[in-house]
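User: Fold both of these, please.

Assistant: Here is the first one.
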Amino acid sequence: MMNQVRQMMSQMGLGGMFGDPEAQPTSQWEPIRDVARRVVAAQGSDPSTSATQLSELRDAVRLADTWLDGATAFPATGGQVAVWSRAEWVEQTMPTWRRLIEPVADAMSEAMADSMSGGEGLEGALPGLDAFLRPLLKSSGAQVFGLQAGQAIGTLAASVLSATEAGLPLSGDAEQTLALVPTNVAAFADGLDQSTDDIRLYLALREVARQRLFAATPWLGPQLLTLVESYARGIRIDLSSLESAMGSFDPTNLTPESMKEMSDQLQGTLFEPQQTNEQKAVLERLETLLALIEGWVDEVVAQATKQWMPSATALAETMRRRRATSGPTEATFQALVGLELRPRRLRDAANLWAALREARGTEGRDDVWNHPDVVPTAADLDDPLGFVSGERSPAAAPVDDLDAELARLLEQAEQERDAERRGDEEDRGDDNTGG
């Protein structure tokens, strides 16, 4: 009977999906990479990168490092610089994706197998079917999710601009590679008023800033990955949806049509994670850290470019719209582990870092990254002025009032600096006249 069912599935085109029931569900990563590569290929031309593109990026990184030296206390990393095609981005990031996805694939495979446990109806209708289908479904659960993961990774590869735009150290090497994806950068630049050189430099600035942050805070990258793993490991599948799909399945009528119908139902309803209280806590911490990273990058790059790059303000707004609307990174994490990022938190984080710089200077702002226990929390994003002053209020001020107060303080500080500069210039003029 086993051979007959396998042969039937093969005829239906499901053999590749269900695979070998004896295989380890999480060991079959070649198909995931292949799916991601096929998705990339379907997006259109993905030309190999050129020596000219690499040379242009290296020039941009050198200039970015020079500008950032005055905007952050974190030193340059001197890491490797690369330009990747979309397919190369998939290859370079796949080891880290595997680490993040594997706990979810395990949960899927166990849920599929558990759906058959205690199947008295199946045993009564067809003795031995439960024993056969359990390992088969366990294998298929991981593989069906693997196809979904490959689709999500390939979709992200077709739009992501750099190695760390997702906010995670995805390249997986000890010294993170600083990389842009020129094909996606060109698509991003299409329709923008800024020059190609300015866009490349602005993206290099953001990438260099992230790399400096990850290098200077060795706890940050591992904690981010651990949080994603922890969240994924706690995922539980909505077995009621699975049971609903299985309820219409007649084990005495093993036809290609009935099996295909069950497969379609499973793929449409299986992957609905139910958040536990522990997951919600992990998710809040993860969202906060990702917001703090991007908010810090926004703040540092704004400081680095304010004297040298007039187009940076418009490009910063373009990046904010990209995060809030198209959100390729957010969509991918939503599909893989149910992570929903909130753009509003990014703005709050940027405001907090700016307020810290005004109060404590660049080094004081960056010192906050020294240890995870002193990094701002979600509550601190609601009350950044309280965090800066060290007097956190029990209830944060209304967000609109808070934004207005921050804007007033920053404008006042800028006016004071302008007055000091004018005073210095007048003093120098008096000295020259007197001399």
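And the second sequence with its predicted structure:
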Amino acid sequence: MRAKRVVCVASTVACLLFFSAALPVRAATILVYHSFGINSSMSISLAAFEAQLDFLAKNGNAVIGIDELVRTIAAGGNPPDGAVVIAIDDGWATVMQAYAVLKRRNLPFTLFLPMAYTANPGCKTTLSQADIDQLKTYPKVTFADHSFSHSPKLAKSEEFAREDVRKSRERFRQVLGFDTKYFAYPYGAVSEAYTRLLREAGYEYLFVTGDKPVSAQTSIRAVPRIAAHRLSLPVLASVLRNHASMLAKARPAPVPPPGKSLVSASTAVEQIPHNVE
């Protein structure tokens, strides 16, 4: 009788593990844009941008704010399944065109700003102080740091990076009136020294380039983002689909119930494009 009980308990545990592993894996994706409606390799037309937003809405991919995303993963939880965060880098003046689209749709987004060029009267192609002040009136925009100089030297020279972090922190406070806990590495270039300097300066959440999904497994010091300005709708769909698939494959293999085997059928999926930042 006791042996039967042991077998029953073992079977129950195995079943729980099986069904737990079979539950949908929840992951989010950060889509990064740069400029809008201009002739540039880093630009996306407003029509294409709106088409992507239409696709997300029809496909059930909720657009959430960056605060919700990092709060969830920092607590060890998974974000809403298929959620998307919209980020815009470099602070080009054409952001204001995207802002009009996002505001009309009542969607949250995050601006990662290189502070030497933001609100700089000598830079006519970047956001002005008047633009920043207008953006600040929208409660669903989050302002984040993207370095002072946006230089490739940042990950190579600790001395250069230290001064850049100091100037960026000060300039951000001057332009925005507060500090930020978010920082995206220019060009996605990371070094141990640069990361240490950023952490010492008070940046809590660090963003890199990468094709991995964002989930409970994601380190808050290396949150991946994927460039979206060149993604056609079929490729965007593939990226979102593959993120769920990639995370599922990263999970430990489930334990089958006694006497049963796990059979999985998989189909080939498109390759997620390499990031260009």
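Strands lie at 28-33, 35-36, 43-44, 83-89, 109-113, 141-145, 182-184, 205-209, 223-227.
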